[in-house]
């Protein structure tokens, strides 16, 4: 809706976005041995990779004020109202159900036990779930209300929901150790608390967040640099950009996290974004591709991490309809829904200008409708096609260092595919 | 959630449930001729029977503070949040999208005209729609988010949404004359304003509403009489029952409105409910069968009409899943969602006890789990089977006068079916 100025808004937002302290659900080191011993005796539930991403998310306070996987009251509020009402009457945005599914056998094994041990995908005991509540997992209803469709082919549904059990188990998490991935990228995984410290250290008086799950091209960079300029014009002295790629589950044809992180590094090395005023960190959430419902989650989590400006574009968290030839969501609905979402009133939404390749100026520029024919729109699909076929995109589309990362990735992918499935072309 | 007592709550609720006056969108008589002449010159949209029911609903303030069919901002809030935020920050419950669909031809004919004339199903000009906004009607998303399923066979979807156009048109209503049906039942169609007057006239200090779309059996009556007793015990001096059958669109196998009204009259005549403390009126809304989403609408509309206690039962506004052998909704979700719904905080929800036929006492009684085998549950389907086959239900299930109305109706239906389709048995 609006760009709300004034540094008073910002300061209160940096300190305390939700009227409560950030949760940290990781057990203190001194208690780990005893808690582990206690957990060993509990009935166990095995987590999938995505379940573990949610444990990570909840444990660090991104989903504040959630203390664990949703119980039924929270689940129903999330599903029907996209927000939770706290005991004191405060409305908190909570648009995605953050739930843990179990099957009949798990349910039987748990019986009436109050607490459950959660086992990570590699067999380690990662957390206790306290005071559990088990309730029905009506997948059809969850999918319909979250995505606004039940068409087959939604990536998160196929990967996470369809194979999951018919029960949900809610409870409070006590995470036994900080969640680590040991993939060489853990130093990018700053918690909301760590991000806030970093903003303080840099003496940010405004933090603007940019959510992405794609390589950064010069159109993105133009937008981010322009946003910084506008914030300076609004009177902020030190706006800091949180370049915040999503690090959890993404669909198979998205560029993998390690490649994206390397590409983002090059963009900073090449000076397209200013390292002095940019923090690059990983947002550990899995991706739902649930459009207007999910964009609220993306914004809410960043507020919890101390951001107070959020850049929202065309069709955020959207994708093509899985069975029809159209966008799944109206491209304007994400922005509209976000601007009206209960519990996100403090958020300053920054309208996203459309950037495209200006064939006259030979660079990415804000689209000028008066000379529309000079502009070339390069979609993600088009970009991937360039990289895959080894064709160079137009000069000025992306910094050369960043582009090379992508070319290398698609080359490796093709040689892999060729060696595995010689007769099949990648799509 | 809770039964909130205290007469202070009630008085404020009777006067002003939403912090604003009830709307009345019917044009004063003195202006009708000139408004009609003005409307004649506008582009026209033809209303279906159900569209007209919504014009009726909106015009009398049941959907307060809506002044007309939803524009896109209201539609999106309803769909995603089940509530609207007013300019002053007030949250108002609004769980069903109240929208008017038009097709491509209508859209073209309207062009950029600001105002549109609405034509009733019988060809009369019924209303002006002012300052219209036309936006896309994504039926799949609307259905998924409203019903939590897109399975074929949802009655409102098949009757109203599927045949409708691919655009929605919002705007402010100026209704040219009060909506009348001329079916001999208009005297039962009291507006929220008229109901409030009636409650005042009877000096009600509590009004408890009972929503139904089925004949009243002695189990319902037991519940209503018991509620009155409990309200008296809570200290209210004159609780009034609003027996409020739904009068708009219902699915084909529900008992028609005229038969239900006759049946309800007999129940009062036979003294099963006390006419002194009961007001029977028709709620002119169409039925969605959208369970937890719709029960909020049912409650909200009755608050607007001055009720402050709402009786909610098992699976309110629910039905069987259209393609699977199960209830479409969890039978407890309606009550739970209602108790947490934003904008309905003032509502006092009365838990619904389960009544069944006590074969020992030979009457409807509250179910006693300690002697479960003595109780007979008579479903709507079972009741219809009794009436259709001419078999009498157990003594004490329904007053004889009311029962005869049903028997007569099913007899007339069978002779009709026999004469029309001699080889087909009704189901």
Automatic annotation (TrEMBL), chains A, B:
Pathway(s) per entry: Sulfur metabolism; hydrogen sulfide biosynthesis; sulfite from sulfate: step 1/3
EC annotation from Swiss-Prot or TrEMBL: 2.7.7.4
Cell compartments where the protein resides: Plastid, Chloroplast
Main location (coarse class): plastid
Any single biological process term in GO: sulfate assimilation
GO terms of molecular function: adenylylsulfate kinase activity; ATP binding; sulfate adenylyltransferase (ATP) activity
Taxonomic superkingdom: Eukaryota
Protein's UniProt keywords contain Plastid: yes
Catalytic activity: sulfate + ATP + H(+) = adenosine 5'-phosphosulfate + diphosphate
Enzyme class, spelled out: transferase
Cited InterPro entries: ATP-Sase_PUA-like_dom (IPR025980), PUA-like_sf (IPR015947), Rossmann-like_a/b/a_fold (IPR014729), Sulfurylase_cat_dom (IPR024951), Sulphate_adenylyltransferase (IPR002650)
Entry GO terms, CC: chloroplast
Keywords: ATP-binding, Chloroplast, Nucleotide-binding, Nucleotidyltransferase, Plastid, Transferase, Transit peptide
Residues in Sulphate adenylyltransferase catalytic domain copies: 187-409
Ranges where the ATP-sulfurylase PUA-like domain occurs: 15-177
Similarity section: Belongs to the sulfate adenylyltransferase family.
UniProt protein name: sulfate adenylyltransferase
Organism: Macleaya cordata (Five-seeded plume-poppy)
């Amino acid at each position: 809706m609006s760009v709300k100025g004034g540094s008073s808004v910002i300061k209160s937002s940096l300190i305390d976005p939700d009227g409560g302290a950030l949760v940290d659900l990781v057990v203190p080191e001194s208690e780990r041995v005893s808690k582990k011993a206690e957990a060993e005796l509990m009935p166990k539930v095995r987590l999938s990779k995505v379940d573990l991403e949610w444990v990570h998310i909840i444990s660090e306070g991104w989903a504040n004020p959630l203390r664990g996987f949703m119980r039924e009251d929270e689940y129903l509020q999330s599903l029907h109202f996209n927000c939770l009402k706290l005991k004191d009457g405060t409305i908190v945005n909570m648009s995605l159900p953050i739930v843990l599914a179990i099957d009949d056998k798990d349910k039987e094994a748990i019986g009436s036990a109050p607490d459950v041990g959660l086992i990570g995908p590699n067999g380690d005991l990662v957390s206790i779930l306290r005071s559990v509540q088990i309730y029905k997992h009506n997948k059809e209803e969850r999918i319909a209300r979250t995505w606004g469709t039940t068409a087959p082919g939604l990536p998160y549904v196929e990967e996470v929901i369809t194979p999951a059990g018919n029960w949900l188990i809610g409870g409070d998490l006590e995470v036994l150790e900080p969640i680590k991935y040991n993939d060489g990228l853990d130093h990018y995984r700053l918690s909301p608390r760590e991000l806030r410290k970093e903003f303080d250290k840099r003496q940010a008086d405004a933090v603007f967040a940019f959510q992405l799950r794609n390589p950064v091209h010069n159109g993105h960079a133009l937008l981010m640099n322009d946003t910084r300029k506008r914030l300076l014009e609004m009177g902020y002295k030190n706006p800091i950009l949180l370049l915040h790629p999503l690090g959890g589950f993404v669909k198979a044809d998205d560029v993998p996290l390690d490649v994206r992180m390397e590409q983002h590094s090059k963009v900073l090395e090449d000076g397209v974004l200013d390292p002095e005023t940019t923090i690059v960190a990983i947002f550990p959430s899995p991706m739902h591709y649930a459009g207007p419902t999910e964009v609220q989650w993306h914004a809410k989590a960043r507020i919890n991490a101390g951001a107070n400006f959020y850049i929202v574009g065309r069709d955020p968290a959207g994708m093509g309809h899985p069975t029809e030839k159209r966008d799944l969501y109206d491209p304007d609905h994400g922005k509209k829904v976000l601007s009206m979402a209960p519990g996100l009133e403090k958020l300053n939404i920054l309208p996203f200008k459309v950037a495209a390749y200006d064939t006259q100026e030979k660079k990415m520029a804000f689209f000028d409708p008066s000379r529309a024919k000079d502009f070339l729109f390069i979609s993600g699909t088009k970009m991937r096609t360039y990289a895959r076929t080894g064709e160079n995109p137009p000069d000025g589309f992306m910094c050369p260092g960043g582009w090379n990362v992508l070319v290398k990735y698609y080359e490796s992918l093709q040689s892999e595919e060729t060696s595995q499935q010689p007769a099949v072309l990648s799509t």
